[in-house]
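Dear H.,

Thanks for agreeing to be a second pair of eyes. The structure we're designing against is below in token form, covering all 113 positions.
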């Protein structure tokens, strides 16, 4: 249930940006979440609504964009899609993969006033 602490961190970022950028209300938050980030989107949405009550982000829409997991295969040099850590390369069968996408958790865009 680390989604609660993630939402608290997101709110902290929103409050800091509000002070530096001068906005007073958040209408929409768009997050990029990698497929390997171990984040449950529905739990994140639930906790976001709870954490933002009474704040500048209360009632804002949380949009989640899932980033597919991709890796680079060291032996064959191919960029491949993976479903989880330690998957084998679909091209050569090697497990020597370096993840290059899918671990993200970042605020991609805000709609504010």
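And this is the sequence the design step returned. I haven't edited it by hand at all.
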């Amino acid at each position: 249930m680390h989604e609660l602490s993630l939402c608290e961190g997101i709110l902290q970022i929103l409050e800091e940006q509000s002070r530096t950028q001068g906005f007073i209300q958040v209408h929409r938050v768009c997050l990029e979440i990698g497929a390997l980030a171990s984040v449950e989107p529905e739990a994140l949405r639930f906790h976001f609504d709870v954490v933002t009550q009474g704040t500048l982000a209360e009632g804002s829409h949380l949009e989640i964009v899932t980033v597919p997991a991709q890796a680079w295969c060291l032996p064959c040099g191919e960029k491949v899609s993976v479903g989880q850590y330690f998957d084998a390369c679909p091209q050569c069968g090697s497990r020597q993969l370096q993840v290059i996408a899918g671990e993200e958790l970042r605020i991609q865009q805000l709609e504010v006033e």
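Two observations from my side: The beta strands are 26-34, 61-67, 70-73, 79-81, 97-101, 105-112. Residues 3-112 form a domain with the hypothetical protein PF0899 fold fold (CATH 3.30.2320.80).

Warmly,
E.
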